[in-house]
Structure formats: C-alpha cells, structure tokens
Specification:
Elements (H helix, E strand, L loop, with lengths): L1 H79 L6 H74 L9 H12 L1
Length: 182
C-alpha cells in the first residue's frame, strides 16, 4: 500500500509544484512586460519634450527667415520709389507679415500636437505598466491557490478511496484477498 500511496502523493505534489512554477513564469513575464512598458513610457515622454524643443527651434529659425524676407521686401519697395506707408506697398508688407506670423504659429501648434500625441502614448504605456504589475502580483496568488486546491483535491480523493487507512484500502483489501487464496 505504501508505494501506491507514495506514488499518488508524489503525482499530486508534482502537479502542485508545476502550477507554482507556471505561476512564477507568468509573474516573470508580467514583470518583464511592466519593465518594457516603463521604458516605452519614458521614451514617449522624452519624445514629447523633444517635439516641443524642436518646434521652438523651428519657430526661431522661421522668425529669423521672416525678418530677412520682410527686410528684403522693404528694401525692394524702397528701391522702387513707392511710398511704403500707404496703399498697395503697405498692404503687401502687412499681408506678408501676417503670412509669416501664421506660419510661425502653425509650427508651434504642430509641435504642441506632436508632443500631446507622445504624452498620450506615454500615458498608455503607464497604464500597460500598471496592468502588468498587477498581473504579476496576482500570478503567484493564483498559482498558490491552484496548487493548494490540487493538493486538497488530490489528497481528498486519496482519502475517500481509503488510501490513508489500511483497513479501508482497496489495494490492501485486494492484497489480503489474494493472500487468502493461496
């Protein structure tokens, strides 16, 4: 009887150990996913800062270009002999200045939009990280619960079959009956 009970107990124990090992693997995977999401979040946050810095740089570069354009325009108007303070030359200069200002504002707006997209992506990675950390925390709890249920179920079944009581053991009774025949 001892060998059969031992083998069944070992089988139940191995099944429970396997569930714990699967829990450890799930926990490790979830922790890895959390670390990757954390990294991606930091990269996205840095991309947002970079987008803002680049748009600021582009705006300053465009503003200097705009100053050169306006200077050239004023010089050409002056060289033509037209009165720059009134009429068509003034309208051209005003329109060109408004166009350059609009272009500058658009560069800044596009930088803000791009930075916002990167910040939104960073927030998504932050949520992924938190979800993965939560999964990691529950992986071992689930594994231990499953292993405990396996042990209880397995040993309960063995007990119901009378494997822990020599007088009720099916194997033991069979062995006795066989011994009596000979």
């Amino acid at each position: 009887m001892g060998l059969a009970v031992g083998l069944m107990a070992a089988g139940v124990g191995l099944q429970a150990a396997s569930q714990i090992q699967q829990g450890r693997a799930a926990e490790a995977q979830a922790k890895g996913e959390a670390a990757m999401a954390d990294y991606n979040q930091k990269v996205s946050e840095q991309n947002a800062k970079t987008a803002l810095l680049k748009s600021g740089f582009d705006q300053r570069r465009q503003a200097r270009f705009g100053q050169r354009v306006m200077g050239t325009l004023r010089a050409k108007i002056g060289a033509s002999g037209a009165m720059a303070e009134e009429g068509a030359p003034l309208e051209i200069e005003t329109e060109q200045g408004a166009e350059l200002a609009l272009e500058n504002a658009l560069i800044g707006y596009e930088g803000q939009v791009l930075a916002g997209q990167h910040r939104s992506q960073a927030a998504m990675y932050g949520m992924e990280r938190q979800l993965a950390k939560t999964r990691a925390g529950y992986a071992m709890k689930i594994a231990y619960t499953s292993a405990g249920a396996t042990l209880l179920g397995g040993f309960g079944t063995m007990s119901q079959q009378g494997m822990f009581n020599n007088t009720k053991s099916t194997w033991s009774n069979t062995a006795k009956a066989t011994a009596l025949r000979y």
